[in-house]
TrEMBL record:
<feature type="domain" description="DUF112">
    <location>
        <begin position="20"/>
        <end position="438"/>
    </location>
</feature>
<feature type="transmembrane region" description="Helical">
    <location>
        <begin position="109"/>
        <end position="135"/>
    </location>
</feature>
<feature type="transmembrane region" description="Helical">
    <location>
        <begin position="20"/>
        <end position="49"/>
    </location>
</feature>
<feature type="transmembrane region" description="Helical">
    <location>
        <begin position="61"/>
        <end position="82"/>
    </location>
</feature>
<feature type="transmembrane region" description="Helical">
    <location>
        <begin position="147"/>
        <end position="163"/>
    </location>
</feature>
<keyword id="KW-0472">Membrane</keyword>
<feature type="transmembrane region" description="Helical">
    <location>
        <begin position="169"/>
        <end position="187"/>
    </location>
</feature>
<dbReference type="InterPro" id="IPR002823">
    <property type="entry name" value="DUF112_TM"/>
</dbReference>
<keyword id="KW-0812">Transmembrane</keyword>
<feature type="transmembrane region" description="Helical">
    <location>
        <begin position="355"/>
        <end position="379"/>
    </location>
</feature>
<feature type="transmembrane region" description="Helical">
    <location>
        <begin position="467"/>
        <end position="488"/>
    </location>
</feature>
<feature type="transmembrane region" description="Helical">
    <location>
        <begin position="430"/>
        <end position="447"/>
    </location>
</feature>
<dbReference type="Pfam" id="PF01970">
    <property type="entry name" value="TctA"/>
</dbReference>
<protein>
    <submittedName>
        <fullName>Tripartite tricarboxylate transporter permease</fullName>
    </submittedName>
</protein>
<feature type="transmembrane region" description="Helical">
    <location>
        <begin position="391"/>
        <end position="409"/>
    </location>
</feature>
<keyword id="KW-1133">Transmembrane helix</keyword>
């Protein structure tokens, strides 16, 4: 009953006119940038972080959540129309969605994606509202060694699952952890890795790193590939509405997509890519029309898109209850919380219930807005695809620079922005994942402070890190997660050699 009361209070907060405006701006921007290939919700939130640092925290976070949901949906538009997923989670949608578009059924494909996103997103938000309080009750019992072990699990799973190579993921993580050491040591008061630069004594700004890696790095990477052939946009032909047969074939995949997306998205090593492909595989096996798969089966669009949006709500479970980001956008949202001096976790539910429950309630409103906006505005999203890339990325560079100057006017900050942009370009060029760098910078100092607290309490005895059943279990999970990718890779190589 407490959850219902808290959700009702959150709905009162979310329905305030300013918060409704923030939600509308968020879903509109999120869908718009999700439609544009290569510009995902993580980049958009990163660009808006320096612009929103003086705004109301609740409204800004509601807008960021709207961007997240909108970006997840918007990626399906490019996946269906030009076979270019705006987000990696929309890759499974492209398999059948683009075939439907080429067969003149782009309208029903976009409609089942929109309605499936609404259904699964609403169910997943209900799941978030009821699962989060239980996780908070467990998290309150965590000691410093348990929190340190939990962050080790986040470090290993995020770095091992982002990208194709666990070694590259771990390398990215250590870059982020090293950047997290810059500044004044909170225990001793001594400067670390500041190299005599006064501006570095406060540490590396998350917003500068995020904007540099995501926005500037992406712009440089796109410029380096400018000679590639342009994609042809498929016109949406025929009716946008689904037939009765389309509805009959879509509603079960929507529910199954939710079943895959929400629980996997809530795991520390979750994300949206795994459940979308699992959903696609399941629909391919369960369909009554196997001959249509590979030629434009509507189940292959309905299931993965539902899983995609359900996983977006799932990733907010560990973010809000434990302060653990499991995706690049969740890491950006964590940076948004910290920008206002807020640390997601069990204490946030007790200290700022209006903010947390207002954010959760706003997700229901954002979902409804997405459905109302996206079906009539398909034509507008298609026109966005016609924006020339040089104009688009030139605008992003200008916006990134101005945002950084507004947040912290400093030559050192602009130099760091440029340096991080070059680093982001090189990481993309050589296939190093970017999200672990941001996660390392945000969680590294927190993990260090929890480790030092645990060792201080035990008078420096490292055995304390495995004496608690919770920390011992979590460290065991982290060890398995670290070893498993290498074992699986070697097994696949051995099998390939035998064949």
């Amino acid at each position: 009953m407490d959850t219902f009361a808290a959700l009702a209070h959150g709905m009162v907060v979310a329905l305030q006119p300013m918060n409704l405006l923030f939600a509308l701006i968020g879903v509109f921007l999120g869908t718009a940038v999700g439609v544009l290939p290569g510009i995902g919700p993580a980049l958009t939130v990163a660009l808006l972080l320096p612009v929103t640092y003086k705004l109301d925290p609740g409204g800004s976070l509601i807008m960021f959540a709207g961007i997240y949901y909108g970006g997840m949906y918007g990626g399906s538009t490019t996946a269906i129309l030009i076979n270019t997923p705006g987000e990696s989670a929309s890759m499974a949608t492209a398999l059948e969605g683009n075939k439907m578009a080429k067969a003149g059924r782009g309208g029903p494909a976009l409609a089942t994606a929109a309605i499936g996103s609404f259904v699964a997103g609403t169910l997943a938000t209900i799941g978030l509202a009821f699962v989060a309080p239980y996780l908070v009750d467990i998290a309150v019992k965590f000691g410093p060694e348990d929190y340190f072990a939990l962050m080790v699990v986040a470090f290993v799973t995020v770095s091992a699952t982002f990208g194709d190579s666990p070694v590259r993921g771990l390398t990215s993580l250590f870059i982020g952890l090293t950047l997290g050491l810059v500044g004044i040591d909170k225990l001793t008061g001594q400067p670390r890795l500041a190299f005599g630069v006064p501006e570095l004594l406060d540490g590396v700004e998350v917003t500068t790193l995020a904007v540099g890696l995501f926005a500037v790095g992406e712009a440089l990477y796109v410029v380096s590939r400018r000679h590639q052939a342009e994609e042809k946009v498929e016109a949406v032909r025929g009716s946008l509405w689904m037939t009765r047969e389309d509805w009959k074939r879509s509603w079960k995949p929507w529910l199954r997509g939710f079943g895959f997306g929400f629980p996997i998205g809530a795991l520390p090593a979750g994300g949206a890519e795994i459940p979308t492909f699992l959903s696609y595989s399941a629909e391919r096996r369960l369909t009554a029309h196997p001959e249509e798969f590979g030629k434009g089966a509507i189940e292959g669009v309905a299931g993965p898109e539902a899983a995609n949006n359900a996983s977006a709500a799932g990733t907010l479970v560990p973010l809000l209850t434990l302060g653990l980001p499991t995706s690049a956008t969740a890491a950006m949202m964590l940076a948004g919380f910290q920008q206002y001096g807020l640390n997601p976790g069990p204490l946030l539910f007790a200290e700022r219930p209006d903010l947390v429950w207002g954010l959760i309630a706003s997700l229901f409103i954002a979902n409804t807005m997405l459905l109302v906006l996206n079906l009539p505005l398909v034509g507008l999203w298609v026109r966005l695809l016609a924006i020339p890339q040089p104009w688009l990325y030139a605008g992003i560079l200008v916006f990134a620079t101005m945002g950084t100057i507004a947040a912290k006017p400093s030559v050192v900050e602009l130099t760091m922005l440029t340096g991080f942009g070059v680093m982001g370009f090189l990481m993309r060029r050589y296939d190093f994942p970017i999200a672990p760098v941001v996660v390392g910078l945000i969680l590294g100092p927190l993990a260090e402070s929890q480790l030092r607290r645990a060792l201080s309490i035990s008078l420096g005895d490292p055995v304390t890190l495995v004496q608690s059943p919770i920390s011992a279990t979590l460290l065991g999970v982290a060890l398995i997660a670290l070893i498993a990718p290498f074992v699986l890779k070697n097994m696949s190589r051995f099998k390939a050699t035998e064949d």
